[in-house]
Every structure is written in C-alpha cells, then in structure tokens.
Design a protein that fits this description.
By secondary structure, this protein is α+β, with helices and mostly antiparallel strands. It is globular and about 65 Å long. It is built from six helices and ten strands, in the order E-E-E-H-H-E-E-H-E-H-E-H-E-H-E-E. Strands 1, 2, 3, 4, 5, 6, 7, 8, 9 and 10 form a ten-stranded mixed β-sheet that branches. Helices cover about 20% and strands about 40% of the residues.
Length: about 250
C-alpha cells in the first residue's frame, strides 16, 4: 500500500433524503446509506453533466471510487403518493405537465405508490480518482462549492441543509481521510448557529466502499454485500450489481 493518495471528502446532510432501493411495483423504498448512483448523480449535477449526455454519463459512472461513512442513519419515512397520467401512457410525453395530461380530465388514470425517505440521514463520503475520470478531483471540489445545477440528497425534492464542505488532501487510507473530514465537520458544528444539530447525536458509524478499493487498501472488512447501484444505462434507467465492503468499527 502506498504512503498516501489524494482523497476528496464531503458532507451530505438533508432533513429528507432518498437513496433508491430496488423498485417493486408501486414501492419506491430508500436504502439506509447514500448509494453510488446517488452520489454520482450529485457529482454530475455539480459538474453540469446533462442527463441525456450518454457519453459523459457513461464516463462519470466509472470515474471515481466512493466510500461512505454514516454519522446518523436517520429514521425511515414512507410517503403515500398519487399521480395522474393519461390512459395508455407508455412513457413520458409532452414538453409540459399541461401538455402531458391534456384537457380531458376524464381521460386520466390515478397511479398509487409509496415513496421511501430517510429523515435526518447524515453521512460523509470520500472520492478517489480513477483512470480517465470525467474531471480531476480539484475540479470536482471547485464545482461542489459552486455547482452548475442544484444539488440534492437523492430526489430533487430532497434539498441539502448543509454545504458539502469539500476537502482535498493526501491520506494513507480512506479511513484516515474520513476521520480528518469528520473532525473538521465536528468543529464546524460547534458554532452557535449550528446548535440545532446536537439533537442528531452524530457518531462515527459503518464505512461502506467499493470492494476493489477496500482490498487495495488492505482494509479490515467485516462483510461483503451486493448493491444494485452502479449505473449502466442512463437512458433505460438500469443499474448493475456491485460488491461493497463494510469495514469493521474503527477501520
């Protein structure tokens, strides 16, 4: 293992967050931790990568190693959701909502579903740059501070309640990088204006990261799980399985 490598660390907090789990029928549940696809979407929004830019979306999907540490997993919230759509709709149609539903209210169906969220999910994450990355880490850091598009914690409705506070530095391991970011974050939250965050009882929790990165760093792996959050087709909204290492407490 090398003496050190660059890591870009950042904070992710929102009163309501949603990190897409497998969608079955009308159920749209949320994972308990930020998914790779959600964080790549956040990076893409910061950089200004359009959703229909297939080439750059594909490049983005393979640009960074990602590790996440939970400081508070938050509480689950299931929202009952209804939406009206035209009869026989096979996909999105119409440039506006008015065009989509048309003028005949009797020609509409009502779709029922449940949307999952996490209340007060609080995480920090670390990025490492891979070969042929869509942007170097210093550029990602700059765009996190002045993003091209609005940033969110999963769904667009889940606005961030703290700045990302990106920090770029060289560390021996991802655990060291996350420890450094967490210490700086805790100092920031000691400010009088941040007193309300004391109710969250933040504490260093589990770290999840790409298995290949964990093995390269010779990390102390507690278990290996599978998550379907590696983007494979942005047009068809498809995701591949990836192996995720969950590290033991303390590294």
């Amino acid at each position: 293992m090398s003496a050190g490598r660059p890591y870009l660390t950042a904070t992710l907090y929102a009163p309501l967050a949603s990190f897409g789990d497998l969608a079955v029928g009308g159920e749209r549940r949320s994972e308990r931790r930020p998914t790779r696809s959600a964080l790549l979407g956040l990076i893409g929004a910061a950089l200004g990568i359009e959703r229909d830019d297939a080439a750059r979306q594909t490049q983005l999907a393979n640009s960074y190693g990602i590790a996440v540490q939970m400081l508070a997993v938050g509480k689950p919230l299931l929202d009952y959701h209804t939406a009206q759509v035209p009869h026989g709709r096979t996909g999105r149609g119409g440039a506006t909502r008015r065009e989509e539903i048309g003028g005949d209210k009797n020609a509409l169906n009502t779709i029922l579903s449940s949307r999952g969220y996490r209340m007060d999910s609080f995480a920090i994450f670390a990025l490492t740059e891979r070969e042929n990355a869509v942007a170097p880490l210093d550029q990602v850091q700059a765009k996190m501070q002045r993003p091209h598009f609005s940033l969110s914690a999963g769904r667009k409705s889940c606005s961030l309640a703290l700045p990302l506070g990106p920090r770029l530095g060289v560390h021996a391991t991802v655990v060291a990088a996350l420890d450094d970011h967490r210490r700086a974050l805790m100092e920031f939250l000691k400010a009088p204006a941040m007193a309300g965050f004391s109710r969250l009882r933040l504490a260093p929790g589990e770290i999840s990261m790409d298995l290949t990165d964990a093995e390269m760093e010779e990390a102390d792996i507690r278990e290996i799980i599978s998550m379907r959050d590696q983007p494979s087709s942005r047009d068809r909204w498809q995701f591949d399985l990836r192996s995720v290492a969950i590290l033991r407490a303390g590294g």
